[in-house]
Amino acid sequence: MISDKRIAIKFFVVVLSCVFVTGDAEVRCIESEREALLSFKKGLINKYSILSSWRSDECCKWYGVECSNTTAHVIALDLRGANLRGKIGSSLLELHHLTHLDLSRNDFGGIPIPKFIGSMKQLQYLSLWGSHFSGSIPNHLVNLTNLRSLVLGENDFGGIPIPEFISSMKQLQHLSLWNSNFLGIVPPRLGNLTNLRTLHLSQNDFVTIPPQLWNLTNLCSLDLSFNSLSSISLSGFVLESLEILDLSYNQLNGSIPDMGTFSSLIELQLSVNNFAGSIPLSIGQLSKLQVLDLSSNSLEGLVSKSHFMKLHKLKKLDLSFNPLLNLDIAPDWSPPFQLSDISLIRCNVGPYFPKWIRTQRSFAYLDVRGANIRDEAPTWLWSTSSLLVSISLSGNQISGTIPNLSSTSILYMDVSYNQFSGPIPLLPAYASEILLSGNMFSGSISSICKTRHRDLQYLDLSNNQLTGEVPDCWEKMPILQSLNLANNSFSGEIPPSFGNLEELVALQMHGNDLFGELPYSMRLCQNLILIDLGGNMLTGEIPIWIDQLDGVKILNLRGNKLHGSIPTKICNITVYIDVLDLSLNNLSSIIPDCFNNFSALASKDPTGFYTSLFAPTDNINGSKHYGYSSFQWKGKESEYWDNLEFLKLIDFSSNRLTGNIPKSFSSMRGLRSLNLSRNSLTGYIIPDIGKMEMLDSLDLSHNQLSGNIPTSLARIYTLGFLDLSNNNLSGKIPTGTQLQSFNASAYAKNDGLCGNPLPKCPGESLRPSTTDPVENMDEKDGNILSFMQEVAISMVFGFIFGFWGVVGSFILKKSWRIAFFNMFDAAGDWLYVRVALFVSKWRRS
Ligand SMILES: *[C@@H]1O[C@H](CO)[C@@H](O)[C@H](O)[C@H]1NC(C)=O
Ligand SMILES: *[C@@H]1O[C@H](CO)[C@@H](O)[C@H](O)[C@H]1NC(C)=O
Ligand SMILES: *[C@@H]1O[C@H](CO)[C@@H](O)[C@H](O)[C@H]1NC(C)=O
Ligand SMILES: *[C@@H]1O[C@H](CO)[C@@H](O)[C@H](O)[C@H]1NC(C)=O
Ligand SMILES: *[C@@H]1O[C@H](CO)[C@@H](O)[C@H](O)[C@H]1NC(C)=O
Ligand SMILES: *[C@@H]1O[C@H](CO)[C@@H](O)[C@H](O)[C@H]1NC(C)=O
Ligand SMILES: *[C@@H]1O[C@H](CO)[C@@H](O)[C@H](O)[C@H]1NC(C)=O
Ligand SMILES: *[C@@H]1O[C@H](CO)[C@@H](O)[C@H](O)[C@H]1NC(C)=O
Ligand SMILES: *[C@@H]1O[C@H](CO)[C@@H](O)[C@H](O)[C@H]1NC(C)=O
Ligand SMILES: *[C@@H]1O[C@H](CO)[C@@H](O)[C@H](O)[C@H]1NC(C)=O
Ligand SMILES: *[C@@H]1O[C@H](CO)[C@@H](O)[C@H](O)[C@H]1NC(C)=O
Ligand SMILES: *[C@@H]1O[C@H](CO)[C@@H](O)[C@H](O)[C@H]1NC(C)=O
């Protein structure tokens, strides 16, 4: 997706700079050509009536049609992006003077490129990109020897090499074949196209660049990004006219070649390759260079002033993700350039804050995440560029306080995981994302009420030392989507103005000292997906209006002082719920038997969180935090960040719940972790517990469950943690590899359990059929259980909260991991596009 956008944007630049379609003129339409156009229109499905003007006599004034001023012949037909479908009629052949044909960005439904186009010998410009053509490229195009521009990108030509005949189109100046599933080698004969000025072959699967390409001495733009190129040899070639060279996203290795002969370069993109060694000094001689992107390679060594010697025009510098690159440039360095984008993520920029940034008066974008800076933030940082739009400093050890930012132009600010202290600053008035997590900010946050933040969507103040009440002015942030106040020392009640946050998706306030009941107004936050209020001192009952928040996926109320029963209304928020954690409260009475309605938990697929809606923070590794929450998994209190969406968990442990385990639990076939321990549950373990076949962790310990262990439990092959101890269970532990692999402690302190891993049962003959667990046991369990007594003993547990310190790891299965990274790529693209958009918007204005 990144690449599509990049390429589309790049392509438009080419189109704009290389093609001129002049306006209408006062000439009379030629009747035969009018007929031809009408006949062409007949074949098309013109859904959005774009061709409604194609009716009048004067066809030269029709949409997309251009006639010659002098002869009145139709010379250009430009129907790009016209949402056309249907058939491309050969009546176009009647337009003998047509030199410019653009049918790009329509949808021709996978048909091959029509052969008749090859007979339009007079064509100079042909663009069919992104119009859903497929199949092979017809040889008939070989006769288009007058073509200056051929644009066929973003179609699916089904894994063929570039047709040889293209290299006989001697006049070609622009050839664009990106993202069209071409593979193999770039034909060396393209080196014969000596008039080529642009060659765009990105997003195919080419493995080598033939040296003949470097003979294209008129080339001004070469894009080979997103291929599988592994080596490049430039020595001996002189490419004086090349302005844009994009080799990013390949597997190029070795050192970056000498760039001395590329004296016209404006843009050099070498990111995401395997380039090693030091940056060649010849780059510093590229006096026209505006964009230098060497990010995500394995470059090393010291970056010195000489590397930038003549880069007077440089605007964008990206050396990110070269962890061995050292940018410790002398503090008095006065660079020759004025940058707009500075990106030095995960290079060694520190230990001191780079002073040369002070000379940059107009940068919009500064990103020095994880750049080993251990220094106080200079006061000029916030004011040196009045155009600052985006600043990311996270994952360093930057200290100091942050001044009043209310009148800055900052839209995006991430200073998380540093050592900033003092009060939180007055926030930039028009910011949309502010991330201050993991610092030492202290005191009250009532200052956020001073101004309206009409654009604020993400506010993360978690993991600081903030105190006082949560302010009651949330109506001033009307489009807030994600609020994280977790792990601070906020006290008081949850203020009612939260009810104004209609867009709120994620609310995280765990690990504070909040008390009182959930405000009634919260029922109005109907977009909530993640509610994490664990580890506070909230009282009252679980509100019955909870059913109004029916989009919730994660509801975490663990470790509070909630009492009363679990309301049956909870069964009305079941469609999306993945995580329901009510543990460590004072809940009593029986568990409602309505878990057959939990559709997300009944599904075995990861439900695909709307993760990009949560704080889209790039963390110091360039990946994302979606906000996090803290749950118990396999006995460990764990924090879940990006992997939240893979969690399917029910935890009612450490309450005072009574009665049976509801039969409907077995419907939750996708559940991964179930913890009902430390309650007063009675009765038997539901016989078809084995239907929860994704279960990884099951804790039913410390209850008064009786009867046998159902044999179906032995069928849960994914089970990695089991605790049935401290119950009244009896009988033989069902055999099967799974249940025998657990420690004896998993079964300890029961009435009469026996068999591996516990000591042998005294009279094995009493239960002969247990050797065949898969077949028959459900009924048998039922019979045995039918005479079981249900004993209710109420137990009061002290409860515990505040275990927020233990970080465990959640080891995903491989398939999940793949899904996860796919998701995270998609979200990365989303952020990339957003940032790119607003930076470019800002530039234009
Ligand atoms: C045709 O008309 C356009 C403006 O309508 C003008 O720019 C162009 O030079 C004209 N071409 C010729 C060949 O007269
Ligand atoms: C190209 O044009 C020549 C002469 O006009 C013709 O003989 C030949 O068949 C054409 N080739 C194709 C592939 O259409
Ligand atoms: C095109 O280039 C190849 C080598 O790359 C050469 O053998 C061939 O003669 C050239 N063809 C023409 C028509 O120049
Ligand atoms: C490049 O062109 C020169 C002369 O035009 C020729 O001698 C040389 O062989 C060509 N190189 C390649 C790799 O085609
Ligand atoms: C570069 O990659 C190629 C192909 O993968 C390999 O043969 C070559 O040894 C590599 N060179 C270096 C310097 O790593
Ligand atoms: C913060 O800056 C704004 C704009 O410059 C100003 O109006 C406001 O009074 C300042 N606030 C404080 C507390 O300094
Ligand atoms: C909570 O915040 C403190 C800083 O106030 C930090 O040291 C601690 O690691 C944070 N805890 C978690 C679980 O992030
Ligand atoms: C759930 O909501 C429906 C209608 O919205 C209502 O009829 C039903 O009684 C509710 N069920 C529970 C358990 O609250
Ligand atoms: C738990 O709730 C009961 C009432 O349901 C109350 O009597 C008891 O004090 C509560 N226990 C704690 C520790 O708050
Ligand atoms: C729950 O599911 C049952 C059928 O399985 C259905 O009759 C009932 O209406 C559902 N309840 C809710 C609240 O969706
Ligand atoms: C970042 O990457 C490093 C090394 O690859 C790893 O040790 C660290 O845990 C990562 N940190 C985060 C927050 O992902
Ligand atoms: C279940 O919850 C209790 C406390 O509520 C905890 O001690 C236990 O470790 C949890 N079990 C698992 C498997 O996480």
CATH fold group of the domain at 230-332? Leucine-rich repeat, LRR (right-handed beta-alpha superhelix)
CATH architecture of the domain at 230-332: Alpha-Beta Horseshoe
Helix residue percentage: under 10%
CATH superfamily of the domain at 230-332: Ribonuclease Inhibitor
List the total number of helices: 6
Form type: globular
CATH class of the domain at 230-332: Alpha Beta
Residue windows where pLDDT falls under 50 for at least 5 positions: 1-25, 610-627, 766-845
What profile does the largest beta sheet have? 27 strands, mixed
Task: Report the sheet-strand fraction.
Answer: 15-25%
What is the C-alpha radius of gyration, as a whole number of Å?
33 Å
Coarse structural class: mainly beta
Give the distinct bound molecules.
Answer: 2-acetamido-2-deoxy-beta-D-glucopyranose
Counted beta strands: 52
Question: Descriptors for this entry?
Answer:
mainly beta; binds 2-acetamido-2-deoxy-beta-D-glucopyranose; 27-stranded mixed β-sheet; 7-stranded parallel β-sheet; LRR_dom_sf; 845 residues; Leucine-rich repeat, LRR (right-handed beta-alpha superhelix); 6 helices; 10% helix; disordered C terminus; disordered N terminus
Describe this structure in words.
It is a single-pass type I membrane protein. The strands form nine sheets. The chain has a 27-stranded mixed sheet, with no helix packed on it. Strands 23-25-27-29-31-33-35 form a seven-stranded parallel sheet, with no helix packed on it. Strand 51, helix 4 (737-740) and strand 52 (752-754) form a beta-alpha-beta unit. Among the domains are: 230-332, Alpha-Beta Horseshoe (Leucine-rich repeat, LRR (right-handed beta-alpha superhelix)), CATH 3.80.10; 813-845. The longest helix has 31 residues, at 814-844. 10% of the residues lie in helices and 20% in strands. It is mostly beta strands and 845 residues long. It binds 2-acetamido-2-deoxy-beta-D-glucopyranose (12 copies). One 2-acetamido-2-deoxy-beta-D-glucopyranose (NAG) binds at residues 404, 406-407, 426.
